[in-house]
Amino acid sequence: MKKLLLSLVILVIASPAFSLEYQWKFSIPTMDTRESAVKVYELLDNINGVYDIEVNIERNSVMFFYDDDKTDVSIAKSKLIDAGYAIEKTMLLEEPKGGVMN
Questions:
Q1: Cβ–Cβ contacts within 10 Å for residue 80, how many?
Q2: pTM for the full model?
Q3: Pairing mode, if any, of strands 18-27 and 89-101?
Q4: Which fold has domain 18-101?
Q5: What is the dihedral of CA 79, 85, 90, 93, to 10 degrees?
Q6: Going by DSSP bridges, is the β-strand pair 50-56/18-27 parallel, antiparallel, or unpaired?
Q7: pLDDT tens by residue, 75-91
Q8: Which residues contact 64 (CB under 8 A, 6 or more apart)?
Q9: Residue ranges per structural domain of the chain
Q10: Cβ–Cβ contacts within 10 Å for residue 25, how many?
């Protein structure tokens, strides 16, 4: 019995940790040129844990995923606002789900 319990404890400790991934969409009215779209992309791309960034100039929006163990949506908002971009609307597009392995 002790061996079984010890095996389970070791298995739990040795198993990889999973974090949640979120997909967000921000509406950014002032992102209406190619240069501003590139800047928004670069700002988000420099945040550890943000990935799959899609910028849409025609819709003045950006969509991205982030790993909740590495960052938070408030960091992305702050980076954009600090750079002078007003965020009109934010939408959580996909409920958090596991699957991002640390």
A1: 21
A2: 0.76
A3: antiparallel
A4: Alpha-Beta Plaits (3.30.70)
A5: -70
A6: unpaired
A7: 999 999 999 999 999 99
A8: 23, 24, 44, 50, 51, 52, 53, 54, 76
A9: 18-101
A10: 17
